[in-house]
Amino acid sequence: MALRLFNTLTRSTQDFVPLxxxxxxxxxxxxxxxxxxxxxxxxxxxxxxxDLVRRYLEFKGYEVQHVMNVTDVEDKIIHRVAxxxxxxxxxxxxxxxxxFEDLDALGCLRPRQIPHATEHIAAIIALIEALADHGIxxxxxxxxxxxxxxxxxxxxxxxxxxxxxxxxxxRTSQRVASDEYAKDAAADFALWxxxxxxxxxxxxxxxxxxxxxxxxxxxxAMSMEALGPAFDVHLGGEDLIFPHHENEIAQSxxxxxxxxxxxxxxxxLLVEGKKMSKSLGNYFTLRDLxxxxxxxxxxxxxxxxxxxxxxxxxTFEGLRGARAALARLDECLDKLRTTAAGATAAPDDNFVGQxxxxxxxxxxxxxxxxxxxxxxxxNNRLLAAGQLSALQAAAALAxxxxxxxxxxxKQAGPSAAPAPLLALLEERQAARKAKDFKRADAIRDELxxxxxxxxxxxxxxxxxxL
Length: 466
Ligand code: AMP
Ligand code: ZN
Known about the structure:
This protein is of the alpha/beta class. It has helices at 41-59, 75-84, 88-105, 121-133, 149-154, 167-173, 215-227, 241-254, 286-291, 296-304, 316-340, 349-360, 365-384, 390-407, 419-433, 437-449, and strands at 4-7, 12-15, 25-30, 63-68, 137-139, 145-147, 189-194, 211-213, 230-237, 259-266, 269-271, 274-275, 312-313, 452-457, 460-465.
């Protein structure tokens, strides 16, 4: 069966047909994090969605060139560097490392290429030059280079492909950022920002003098450098549709390149009905959740329960629900392993087929979970009745392995407790050694309040979910 995906570009669910005439290889670009702070779990909803798309395309047999950039130069970052002192790299390296730690904890596969804006300045400059050659840029009074939407449209370019725009309204109602006072029209955007004293040591030489790239051009340049002028899938959170992705299209097509076939956008993670965001202060980082005793795997499972185009409310009740669902699944898998007793068999096609039918329909995870929990119930029934042979159990497990290559919920090993809790466990062992039993007991109680119990094994103490 063919995979169908909702394409923001056509506003419709379409059969997925890659550009590769052989139908095998495809390029996927996901706008990556701006490394100015710890990412919150709203951001990670989008990255888990990107991971799901990549994994499902691989499951369908495609060879996926998955690229995610790191935005390591941008207004907020420069502002923070100026406050913190030190170099841009020193500042961003810390948050970048934290981002990838969290991405790993959430079971996301590493993208195959991770370009950094600061390492692709030459490609960015070359693209701005191509746009200048096409006559759709202009210099502002401060030396910055802007993209002219009017000239782009006059030359036949379509601005407003991802959403319908009212150009009259845009001219009058868009707020003009203070550092962009010099542009001709409100919706024009900076390709190259001239150096200002506030930029400190963050600048590069260019044909237009010292300065730095605008955010939108970074993604156009890096995606096309990695994947070529036309590639298959571009994705991000829905807030990126406008202006970021619209501007990416304008920049790439303005330079005469066809750009992207399928645009996918993930809905936001909400808190009490509002977008989780730094500016509203209503956010949790993954670290916050690990500190409360939850695991990255539980958070991933929770994020995967919602269809990517549905806004989804984050609640701790939901997260506890994901914990319970995983426990049910793990228990069934453990029993299947015991019954299979090392036997091997081809995957149960029926179960894989149900999962595939659900996911082919624009990644319908709700239907996929329905099939999974029906499968768990049926296995539990057969196991309880002693009606499952070793070979049948092995076929069930082989099917689960195929499905889990998409879901990425690999069953946790003994050290699966979140890192802050493992640190507490170590502290308890040290307290016991020092005969500080009061402290050791207090730690045990704290761990218990976070849903973990200490189990003594011949290899030492370890944490088990309660
Ligand atoms: P940023 O680091 O701000 O550039 O954002 C990284 C990604 O997170 C982008 O794809 C955003 O669209 C996405 N994002 C931001 N907030 C949310 C949210 N509350 N829910 C889902 N995705 C989000
Ligand atoms: Zn981008």
